[in-house]
Amino acid sequence: MIHGEIHQNVRQYINGRWETSATTGVSANPSDTSEVVAEYARADRRQVDGAIRAATEAFPHWSHSTPQRRADVLDRIGAELLARKDELGLLLAREVGKTLPEAVAEAARAGQIFKFFAGEAFRSGAGGGGSENVASVRAGVQVDVTREPVGVVGLITPWNTPFAVPASKIAAALAHGNSVVFKPAELVPACGWALTDIISRAALPAGVFNLVMGSGREAGQALVDSALVDALSFTGSAANGERILQAAAMRRAKVQLEMGGKNALVVLADADLDRAVDCAVQGAYFSNGQRCTASSRLIVEAGVHDAFVAKLRQRLKALKIGHALERGVDIGPVADAERLAQNLAWVDIAREEGAEHVWGGEALQRATTGHYMSPALFLAKPAHRIAREEIFGPLACVLRADDYDEALALCNDTPFGLCAGLCTNSLKHAMHFRRHAVVGMTMVNLPTAGVDFHVPFGGRKGSGYGPREQGRHAAEFYTTVKTGYMLA
Ligand code: NAD
């Protein structure tokens, strides 16, 4: 159904109906810009307000639905995502430029997330795992603490993981009894639509789930500003996250922000060097570094610095960059022309700052016209901008450290705090690093990118705000606590 088809009329989904909008936009295939992937309706404020009203009206009934009802809906969505992962992966690869195996894996992950939250529905709310009976300090009084759905939630998502990030938010919101208005990024309307198409057939009451596509400035901001939206979960850039936080704080909406990173992979002299290079290639360059968990700072202990750089350069030379659907391609194109231009501008900045060029950073021509570039590697100093700012592209830098202590200090010397990796054979250093890296997630002898879907995900400092996403911790954001007292 999706393969090779141009999606004319990809519409909004509001109050159980598909709606057109006054204006439309187009998404193109970054591997072959002559291919239109979707033509989509762009919502204005009025339409977003309509979706919010529908979610508000649907909330009371849905919030009192039985766990079985919610589990059945989520299970059905998860099952369809898993059954159609190849077809959906193909769509994702066409719209974002991830290689087909990566894209199929993401579609499957979205299915697993819905399946996980089908189970969570039974552990949510009054009588579920979130509630407790507590002895009162007053004789004859009974106290219980329960969790209730938070209300209408606005979900604003980025383009780089257009199935998995929305799935984490939507599944958690619905499992805990909330109603949803979902705004995907403008680059990925077809993925947002495909997910919604599946959700629309899962027997949800009208208005419980709504899709609004459109710009962040208009459609996204309408969600942020509406007094009817009780909670906002945003994943995207730090700059937009901070703006949203300020606006939401003014009206006391609950906020969860997942933002950028400048994640480090520390390589110690005692590490298995081949494994370390493998972690660096996967973590820094796969998906073109367009992952919030990408390791864009490779902090290497002096004793293995030169050997590591030489091995990494060899690996980068051998990577195959090409059309995302071509068999054997390691890395597809970057997402669009704007991002390609930004990445190439970062290469210029690196050179101007005096960072030493090791490999890549050039625009590439392929058989089809797409946004191709070679993965870039520089040797940098900690003060260089390429070592401090999020690039969100296939550019990583190596920083030299004299010893473990300096490496850890460099790792933590950043305004971000999403994740950090360490390659070592030292148990002592591994244990110390897991405790002292100031981040939300640590990875030892593993790439920084690539996480499980059933445990908390999120960061500290400039990378995150509010409760974590995923797993049972998602209840902290998607529910609110109520304490009940009763004279027995
Ligand atoms: P972005 O901030 O440009 O956009 C994210 C979403 O916010 C989009 O849907 C956009 O339309 C919307 N938006 C923009 N301005 C808005 C506004 N004023 N009000 C409401 N909504 C608004 O980010 P992007 O370019 O789509 O994604 C890349 C960024 O996302 C990177 O910084 C990356 O690190 C981050 N990211 C973080 C995680 C994480 O979990 N920490 C995961 C994936 C991506």
Name the descriptors:
7-stranded mixed β-sheet; 6-stranded mixed β-sheet; alpha/beta; 488 residues; Aldehyde Dehydrogenase, Chain A, domain 2; 25 strands; binds nicotinamide-adenine-dinucleotide; 2 domains; globular; Aldehyde Dehydrogenase, Chain A, domain 1; 14 helices
Fold and architecture overview:
With 488 residues, the chain is of the alpha/beta class. The chain folds into two domains: 7-259 and 463-487, 3-Layer(aba) Sandwich (Aldehyde Dehydrogenase, Chain A, domain 1); 264-444, Aldehyde Dehydrogenase, Chain A, domain 2 (3-Layer(aba) Sandwich), CATH 3.40.309.10. 38% of the residues lie in helices and 24% in strands. The protein is built from 14 helices and 25 strands. The chain has a seven-stranded mixed beta sheet, with helices on both faces. Strands 10-9-8-11-12-24 form a six-stranded mixed beta sheet, sandwiched between helices. Helix 4 (100-120) runs parallel beside helix 5. The longest helix is centred in the first third of the chain and has 21 residues, at 100-120. The protein is globular, with a radius of gyration of 23 Å. The termini are far apart. The model has no long low-confidence stretch (mean pLDDT 96). Bound molecules: nicotinamide-adenine-dinucleotide. Nicotinamide-adenine-dinucleotide binds next to helix 7 and helix 8.
